[in-house]
Structures are given as structure tokens and as C-alpha cells.
Amino acid sequence: MAGVNKVILLGHLGADPEVKYLEGDKVVANLSLATSEAYQDRNGNRVEQTEWHDLELWDQQAKIAEKYLKKGSQIYVEGKIKSDKWTDEQGQNRKKMKIRVLSFTMVGGKPEGMPGAPAAPAASNAMPSASPVTAPMVSLDEGDDDLPF
Fold it and tell me: What gap in Å lies between CA 4 and CA 94, rounded to an integer?
């Protein structure tokens, strides 16, 4: 049976995209994405925990990121985990995990410094992602219903 390597993230960029133009019309953008969660500890204190994720976007996605994304932009990402291995100058083996972005959608308002900018398209290798949609609120009434449980 084949494995599954899928990552879904929703967070804010920690810096503007770093874009590099390579030989043969290849473009790569590196992004740093912060995801946060909050909870209460045993003493009732609110604790916020932030994780940082290194993202890698290629070609058309990289160009869209360069044009529309800025530090603080909120994005929804789907991708896969990728590891890079290398030997540093001291001969130590190194390994870095990153997310190879397969598709992303910009969430939230227009980035600062871009008044009147047109809405940016979703970026995808396969098919465009739909615009973010807010699901309707559902009331979880404890009254009589037709559910079997």
C-alpha cells in the first residue's frame, strides 16, 4: 500500500517571500509561515504556542507569491513534507524539513501597501482553489432530533 504525504496549514507569513530566479526560467520562492494555537494550562493561564514552517513554492506559484504576498499575509496551504540533506563545511551531515507547496489560497484582506489592488488568484499546480467560504453556523440543539446516536 502506498503512503500519504499531505500537509494542510493556515497561518501568517513571518517575512516577505524570498524569490530566486534560476537557470531555464525556473523560479523558487521560500516563505516562513507561523501557525499558532492557544490553550489553558492546569493553572488556568492562557498559553499560546507558535510553530514555524519553511515553505517552498515553484514557478507560477512563486511568481504569484512575489507579486501578492507580504509579511503578515494569511494563507491556506496544501503541500507535502520534503527533507533536504547536505554536508556542511565542517563535515557534519545536516537535514532540514520543509513543505513543498502544491496549492495555496490567500485568506483575509488585501496586503498593506496595495490599495485598490485586484483580488489575487489562488495558486495551484493542478486546478485553482476555490475562494475561501465561511460555513454557516449550525446550532447543536440538545432537543429531539432524528440522529441515531
Answer: 25
